[in-house]
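Researcher: I'd like a structural prediction for the single chain below. Treat it as a standalone chain; there are no partners to consider.
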Amino acid sequence: MITKMTKYTFLLLSRDTEAFLREIQELGLLDINRSRKPTDAASGQLYREAEAILKEIETIEKCDYARDERHSAIQGKLDAAEAAYAEKKHWGDLDPAKVKALREAGCQLHFYTLPLKKFKASWLEEYPIAEIDRDEKFIRFVLIDRASEGANNFQAPETPVAVESLKELAGQVASLKEALADRESEMEYRKQDIPTLERAYAEKVQALQRYLADAGSEKAAEDYITVLTGFAPTDDDARLKAELDSKHIYYLSEPATAADNPPVKLQNNWFARNFETLTGMYGMPVYDEFDPTPVLAPFFLLFWSFCMGDAGYGLLLIALGILLHKTNFDLLGLKKNWRLVTTLGVGTFVIGLFLGTFFGINLKEISWIPEGLRKLMLVGKVELNGTGYDIAMIAAIIIGIFHICLAQVIKAISITKRAGFKEAISTWGWVVLIVGGLIVAGLALTHVLNALATKIAIIAIGVLSVLGIFIFNKPGRNPLLNIGSGLWDTYQTATGLLGDVLSYIRLYALGLAGGMLGGAFNDIAAMTLGSSPTWQWLPFLLIILIGHALNFAMSCLGAFVHPLRLTFVEYFKNSGYEGKGVDYKPLTNDIIIENK
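Model: Treating it as a single chain, here is the predicted structure.
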């Protein structure tokens, strides 16, 4: 099945893009596409407007007071007022009348705060100093400077002391704290505006995307605007959004649709997952297609096993799979697909038993084989109209008919799902004719349906299929055109289906050829042995090993190529599978970002 995806949109200036992508790499979840456009006046304005809305959202959402200008201004005033109040507490309130009187008498007051270790006791004798306050670290004192005695030469930085009283400063602190609390409450209350601001941001981004899509080529290329579109599995939404929020990355997210052409991630059970490699060889499904892997997996296994047709070769494949998994041995890059090799081996062993071949030996001729297994073997002939046909060939044709019928049903369901029933009427007509006809024929031949019921069923199938194929294949179109289109479709379908069904005979032919060739090598090897073999065992073993090694290699090649053809041509053609999707490849730390 195809994993549901979520679409994420990010808007950045290109100078910020690479740093952003490095952060995205750490997450390893987003499949990123980027588009770059040079800025001009209009696009730059749209970007700045979107960026302003984004900053406002982030400030409100995170209650980031440091980014709010009003909050920062109030906080700065409060810090200064608290510092002034704390310092004023050491000095106490000054009597304004006395300060004024001193100034009128030509005296200036200078305030100093010095570390105790830097204060010299001799200064008390040298200068007119009055100590005000002393603690474990600092001493605070006032130096009186008489203008009539010349300039004061005391070398120390003065301490600014607020002229306001302690009561006035305390009032300022309280007032600023109240203003700060009001601003924080306002910002908390404004969180209810976030949905409106998010819609406004989305509208700006969409307007910018439309503008960049339609803009001409004359740009002021001082910078570039990068629109990043990313896709991630919907199941990872909670984790991804938490990570983006923690990194203060703003984004737009919405469920991905087929129109977005999102990358495709397949999600299958342990068995079908082994065959996803084969699906990728043809092409990934588009987002609204059916994943063909759950159907491809059992049929490819069956086709492969038929083409190999030898239980002994199945054991070799199982051994090869285990060897690839347990050691560093890697044959033709198959190590990563060791599960697939092992699975194909198990299938080959089972089907090989049914076909009655083990390293070219006909199992049905061996006396110690259980009678129950002999009866299950597809060995011998079936008489039809006086002519004998191999059971294995009949089985291959039946498998082909079923495979193509399943493809037709899947095609009808897929078209109905993607385009609606009206567009699938003709396809459903063929399904009724082919699948329904085969079912009725089977029931009639097995005497489940009597003659009357068979006749009624055939008439019903004929009427429904004629209406679907010839009359309503394109609803609303001229009926004569529909009939002509139906006739052409009938010619193509009839000739195509016949060739498609006959293609499945290759399953029987390849299995038969491999078994016969293996038996031929056995016979040639046996001819080298005399009545009392001695040194003749050496050529016997060489012929057996080399012969079966060649036969095994050729059988593997044929069992790979021909089932792929039956899948890619016969099945995919009849099921309407396109395979034009894009594989999901998230940006991870294993990918090196190219500087653009």
